[in-house]
Amino acid sequence: MPRFGVNYTPSQGWFHHWLDFDLDAVRADLDSIAALGLDHIRVFPLWPLFQPNRTLIRPRAVDQLVQLADAAAERGLDVQVDGLQGHLSSFDFLPAWTRTWHRRNIFTDNDVVAAQAVYLRTLAAALADRPNFLGMTLGNEANQFSGPPHPDPDPVTPEQAADWLRRLLAACEEGAPGRLHLHAAYDAAWYQDDHAFTPAHAARIGAVTAVHSWVFNGTAQRHGRTGVATEHHAAYLIELSKAWAAEPDRPVWLQEVGAPAPLIPPEHAAEFTEATVANALDCRDVWGVTWWCSHDVSRDLADFPELEYGLGLLANDRRTKPAGEALARIVRDRRGRAYDPAPRTTALAVDTGDTGEGTGDGDTAPARSVCAPGGAFFEAFARLTEDGVRPAAVLASRAEDRAHLAARGITEVVHPEEVLGA
């Protein structure tokens, strides 16, 4: 059965809780998470607090992270740790030694990247002997620092981005060999033309492919809260990612998905949760589903986007909300049931503008906006789904590759113009 978990947002102080770490409060939060029947959490150290100077990683902060992991183990929860925070809920958290007077590119400056590697290796090594430690994610959507719309980006090329990912994942592996080490991007990697972090990076580098599904990206605005494209957006990203995977059975982790108001009104959050998870689990090779997020953000904290305050499965007082009840019900119903979705025999060909130079396998995907809401591939996939087809995605360059199609159980390939009319 796929794993079910939640992104842990502390009920007291949000991620600023690391400044006033209260293990009893953390234990109470974890009790409320475990009561939902979930089996893992994703945890977010704040990089500037853990590594405030390039050559200083605070031992007390690392010890507090270990204490949190041990408290999770006591409640039957495994732990995945994101290292470079990085970016969370519209706020950036970058160390002073990378900004203003010390401005250095976080992806390409050798001193900065070397320090990041030491930091990630240190966190991984501190947890390496804990049986409930799943592994490291390099950071939360670090790709948003690489270019527009970030107001002060750190420019990087796709080649440099790949080097950065591989170097830091190697550091995680050195710290904790054999664990689940990966990276995660927000959907510009799939949808934004010429974005430096590419679908190929997501689907070919790291232990599993991570997808983050948010329907405020134009999907719900275009298709409505109950639209097929909205309720299948997470499933769409899972299938889209598999077009770029080198292995036909590469695991995909739905690492972030949530019900953002007002596009998904609070009174419909449970319905959206049920539909999203059911559709995601109609995809093969899903490693797990990790909801965003555990607890609401307190209204005592200022300047968050309005939608961030109410995304929790649990209220700020740890009371279970309807979406939390829905996810708990899904977990109970799925427990003990076989997970073996049928192959998706019809594939939609995706052409993202690669010229065929080099591997010809979509390495750069310069025109990937066809995959975004409103793009021809996105809308054709939605149309097929609405018509009752369970489409897969295949790169146009592989549409005639019989061995590749057979390995994925694909018997028919169609093109967007055939579905939409041209």
CATH superfamily of the largest domain: Glycosidases
> What letter string, H or E per element, gives the SSE order?
EHEHHEEEHEHHHEHHHEHEHEHEHEH
Tell me about the largest β-sheet: 7 strands, parallel
- CATH topology tier name of the largest domain: TIM Barrel
Number of domains: 2
Sequence of strands across the biggest β-sheet: 6-3-2-1-9-8-7
User: CATH architecture of the largest domain, please?
Assistant: Alpha-Beta Barrel
N-to-C terminal Cα separation, in Å? Answer: 42 Å
Overall CATH class of the largest domain = Alpha Beta
Tally of DSSP helical segments: 15
Q: How would you sum up the global shape?
A: globular
Structural class: alpha/beta
What percentage of amino acids are in beta strands? 5-15%
pLDDT < 50 stretches:
none
| Number of beta strands | 12
Q: Bin the helical content.
A: 25-40%
Rounded Rg: 21 Å
Mean pLDDT: 96
